[in-house]
Amino acid sequence: xxxxxxxxxxxxxxxxxxxxxxxxxxxxxxxxxxxxxxxxxxxxxxxxxxxxxxxxxxxxxxxxxxxxxxxxxxxxxxxxxxxxxxxxxxxxxxxxxxxxxxxxxxxxxxxxxxxxxxxxxxxxxxxxxxxxxxxxxxxxxxxxxxxxxxxxxxxxxxxxxxxxxxxxxxxxxxxxxxxxxxxxxxxxxxxxxxxxxxxxxxxxxxxxxxxxxxxxxxxxxxxxxxxxxxxxxxxxxxxxxxxxxxxxxxxxxxxxxxxxxxxxxxxxxxxxxxxxxxxxxxxxxxxxxxxxxxxxxxxxxxxxxxxxxxxxxxxxxxxxxxxxxxxxxxxxxxxxxxxxxxxxxxxxxxxxxxxxxxxxxxxxxxxxxxxxxxxxxxxxxxxxxxxxxxxxxxxxxxxxxxxxxxxxxxxxxxxxxxxxxxxxxxxxxxxxxxxxxxxxxxxxxxxxxxxxxxxxxxxxxxxxxxxxxxxxxxxxxxxxxxxxxxxxxxxxxxxxxxxxxxxxxxxxxxxxxxxxxxxxxxxxxxxxxxxxxxxxxxxxxxxxxxxxxxxxxxxxxxxxxxxxxxxxxxxxxxxxxxxxxxxxxxxxxxxxxx
Length: 594
Hints:
It is a single chain. The protein is mainly alpha-helical. The protein has 2 domains: 465 residues, Sodium/glucose cotransporter, CATH 1.20.1730.10; 71 residues, no CATH class. Helices cover 69% and strands 1% of the residues. The chain contains 24 helices and 2 strands. It has a two-stranded antiparallel ribbon. Helix 4 crosses helix 9 and helix 8 packs across helix 9. The longest helix is centred in the N-terminal third of the chain and has 51 residues. The protein is globular, with a radius of gyration of 24 Å. It starts with a helix and ends in an 11-residue tail after the last helix.
């Protein structure tokens, strides 16, 4: 086959196996054990003693600490584990995740965070309920928050299961159960106060874990210690890394790695859904309620954006390194000669090889490319790809494929777990506050004591993490794909209500409720129909995939909200005065509390 010449060329002569005094499993137990001990210790030290500390850490977190915690909260398993994996297999098309998630954070920092902090409420449903002077609006917002957060947290639990199942050599379900126990302990005990300081530790772990193997592999492959620059470097044979990857991809029947043939309309809608969804995520927004002043909210957003960019600019390099190494390692090679990591990942079920033609070699190519498949058919008529690779294993498998030391591999596992658990904790707190504060305290039982509310919040987290763990064991898709659905739901439900609530004082209760319900129902129904209801790609509206439909849901939300608003009475004068007040700069000191 013509691909043999391209795949037989070694990437580097320096990737010799480093002698290990301990194996990957032993190193994983040590490094993961140390990091978990730190998380638990911090949670005990920063235990919440009041509802204010449980929901918003008492509102006394410094901007830089909050920026680190926000970055950890934001960089979930989708960012750490799945994003580079998606880019590995999608190539240029995967840039929609980078553009959407980073662009959305800029929107959040500029348009939402300072104003919501000045409003001075605990949660997003709290803001919606007060701004739109309605318990019904609060309930709808709480339901939206629960819907979004449960969808999002499922992806985190899958990430935990992937990491544990491979490197602690336990089954996928057991790995999720271990994660449930850990996150339940520090989230239930510490609330937002404990979670904040735990997330600072988790950011340090995950960023080091992401950068160390990237630097190692960049040096090995292109001789440059800066991965972002190494992405454009040359290999030992003198070819550019991306040119080599384009050649390998086309030789296997895939599109060029550096181009995209997907429709521009869908690319725009997916990017926009991720962007506006970011600005509507309740677990990220609530982080800006934990600082002392509005000015601190702006500062912490700036710190968080810089800290996030370190990982996001590294992801494309990791994706290219991993894909190139993978193709050179596996394709058209004897199955019997595969390194040990291949068999270990097979045991998890996330990597599968089926020798369809019985030649003992791994044939991996794009069997959706009919012309290419026809050219590779054997005389007996057999044709078809023999390898299934779960996108979510690429970052974790990357240091193994590159033959890095065992401690580096274990460090990546600890980083992946830190990213999943930090975001899971933030999401669980949103679920807890939506039920205990927005539904129980503000609606069902307004006379509940602070102690009773705190107990209800902790019980809710415990129940929520068990439910999330169950769905994590039966995930509906790749981590980043599931998270993209959550972002679409956030864009379609929360973003118009929040942005209009801040900048359009005429927006009223009836318009906000009608818009949120419309956006959530439309987007949720579209995702369900095309993922579980038998819908086919050719039925997509304007070619928009479920990952991008949140943008259309957001547009429908805004249209319905504005039309209904124009047909119903304006908000009370005192509500309009509050909207005016949260937008004026003289409140850049302490929050007004309104």
